């Protein structure tokens, strides 16, 4: 984790990180990075080192025109998940980290969350596709329906 300048200058250029091994690259708080801190140029220098096989995730509380333009440069054919303005309040967004014993326990916790809460949309990170994919047919028919993205 680091700012684009630190990642590029101190880690990539000094060969402390090898971007060829990256599988996922996350830009978090992209609106702050670009609009407030003006780190777009540094971010693009990092992007030149990201291999085409690396999945890029960009998160932003707000998408100004500047952030949207940046996102389209970084990931031209991205899948976008957006919230309505009224859903942007921090109180409307919940995050969970729940330690689980095994895959079956993780699956049960996921079902419990969907049973106990009204879930309008969710982003669920899973480490290994082949571990979770067989469970997808077992998911209940919910509104909104489950859908999954894998790299």
Describe this structure in words.
The protein is mainly alpha-helical. Helix content is 34%, strand content 5%. Helix 1 runs parallel beside helix 3. The longest helix is centred in the last third of the chain and has 14 residues. It is globular and about 45 Å long. The two termini are 21 Å apart.
Structure summarized in a few sentences:
The chain has 151 residues and is mainly α. The protein is built from 6 helices and 2 strands. Helix 1 runs parallel beside helix 3.
Coarse shape: globular
Helix count, DSSP H or I runs of 4 or more residues: 6
- How much strand content do the residues show? 5-15%
Order of the strands making up the biggest sheet: 1-2
Number of strands: 2
Biggest β-sheet, characterized?
Answer: 2 strands, parallel
CATH homologous superfamily assignment of the largest domain: P-loop containing nucleotide triphosphate hydrolases
Mean pLDDT across the residues is 76
H/E element order: HEHHEHHH
In the CATH scheme, what's the topology name of the largest domain?
Answer: Rossmann fold
């Amino acid at each position: 984790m680091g700012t684009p300048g630190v990642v590029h200058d101190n880690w990539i250029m000094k060969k402390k990180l090898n971007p060829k091994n990256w599988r996922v690259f996350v830009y978090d708080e992209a609106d702050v990075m670009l609009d407030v801190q003006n780190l777009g140029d540094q971010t693009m220098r990092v992007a030149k080192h990201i291999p085409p096989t690396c999945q890029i995730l960009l998160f932003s509380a707000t998408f100004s025109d500047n952030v949207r333009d940046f996102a389209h440069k970084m990931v031209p054919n991205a899948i976008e998940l957006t919230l309505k303005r009224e859903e942007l309040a921090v109180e409307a967004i919940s995050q969970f980290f729940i330690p689980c014993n095994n895959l079956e326990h993780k699956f049960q916790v996921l079902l419990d969350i969907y049973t106990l809460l009204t879930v309008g949309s969710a982003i669920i990170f899973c480490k290994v596709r082949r571990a979770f994919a067989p469970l997808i047919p077992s998911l209940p028919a919910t509104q909104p329906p489950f859908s999954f993205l894998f790299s």
